[in-house]
Specification:
Layout (H helix, E strand, L loop, with lengths): L3 E4 L25 E2 L2 H11 L2 H6 L10 H4 L6 E4 L10 H16 L3 E4 L5 H13 L5 H7 L9 H7 L3 H4 L2 H4 L7 H8 L6 H25 L3 E5 L19 H9 L3 E8 L2 H9 L5 H8 L8 E7 L5 H15 L1
Parallel strand pairs: 3-4, 3-5
Antiparallel strand pairs: 1-2, 1-6, 5-7, 6-7
Organism: Intoshia linei
GO molecular function: amidase activity; fatty acid amide hydrolase activity
Protein name: Amidase domain-containing protein
């Protein structure tokens, strides 16, 4: 089943979020999901209605802007599919390129974007914060819980004594690139106030650079892959090292985004995947989990500046109209 999803601006509404680690650099935001776009639009309007602001006066009273959502003004559209070690499989590039072409045919101005500090944000800064307390919070939460077999070996690392965790960064040099390598590298956590200040500064600088670049190009929205590979069997989730970097980048930037199921994996896509060669080992691993994915959905992700959710939904509506 194809699913539309939406991740609003942090603190756009209240009452459905939590923060177990008490850090506020990378913040979790729970958004709606729907089998059709109309349901997504309806829920977003309801969550940002005047009644919701009256229930909680601490959140900014920025209601859903119907004028932006129903606007016929041509948007400035940016797009990217990766940079450096952050790459995606060919079908994910295809859907982004086709969506960009659709917007261009509608008269929108389209420009390829080179997002600043992409590798640093998705591969280093994100994990430094997530593992800042050495995985102890995750360890305590899952201590008496059932853990899926596909990720069990990684969760076990959180339970290791500190002495063993301090050895793992050295072991990371002998591990193939991907999530496992990054996990070993940062599992010791942040062990001093000065180290935390440095991480904090790096992320604030990264956010400033992303916003400066965005404003310089005058983007309204940016298209990018929803994932590095197509949908796959959930039992294989433990093998998708490095596959989440598109989501990590805008999570760290604190930008809202929406996921639109644009297409499905075709037989030609399958051939492109099998013929694809990369010097990134995690991409070659991803090829192996897509062998039976023909017909599975391919989605594009759309981001906008904070509190500009209407532009994302407008872009998703345009794509839906094109497909219909």
């Amino acid at each position: 089943m194809k699913v539309n999803a939406f991740d609003d601006t942090f603190f756009c509404y209240s009452g459905i979020r939590n923060n177990h680690t008490k850090q506020d650099l990378i913040r979790t935001v729970k958004g709606p999901m729907s089998s059709d776009l109309d349901g997504l639009i309806l829920s977003t309007k309801a969550l940002t209605s005047e009644r919701m602001f009256n229930c909680d006066s601490s959140i900014p009273p920025i209601p859903f802007n119907e004028n932006i959502f129903n606007s016929t003004k041509k948007l400035k559209v940016g797009f990217f599919t990766g940079s450096g070690v952050c790459q995606v499989l060919p079908p994910m590039k295809r859907v982004v390129a086709e969506c960009a072409k659709h917007f261009e045919n509608l008269g929108f101005e389209v420009e390829e974007w080179n997002p600043p500090l992409l590798v640093e944000c998705a591969n280093d800064y994100f994990f430094e914060v997530i593992l800042s307390e050495s995985g102890n919070t995750m360890s305590s939460i899952l201590k008496k819980d059932l853990v899926d077999k596909s990720i069990a070996k990684y969760i076990k690392i959180f339970h290791f004594p500190d002495v063993i965790k301090r050895i793992l960064p050295f072991w990371s040099y002998f591990v193939e690139c991907g999530f496992e390598k990054t996990l070993y590298k940062y599992i010791t956590g942040i062990r001093s106030y000065d180290q935390w200040k440095n991480v904090y500064k790096n992320i604030l600088v990264a956010r400033d650079e992303i916003k400066k670049s965005w404003i310089k190009h005058n983007f309204d929205i940016v298209l990018f892959p929803a994932f590095t590979c197509p949908a796959f069997d959930s039992k294989l989730i433990g093998k998708i090292h490095g596959a989440c970097w598109p989501t990590m980048y805008f999570n760290l930037a604190d930008f809202p985004s929406g996921v639109f199921p644009y297409s499905s994996l075709t037989s030609q896509d399958m051939n492109d995947i099998q013929n694809f060669q990369s010097n990134q080992k995690y991409l070659n691993k991803l090829k192996t989990i897509c062998k039976q994915a023909e017909g599975f959905p391919l989605s594009v992700q759309i981001a906008a500046m904070p509190f500009k959710e209407e532009k994302i939904l407008l872009a998703m509506k345009n794509l839906k109209n094109i497909l219909n």
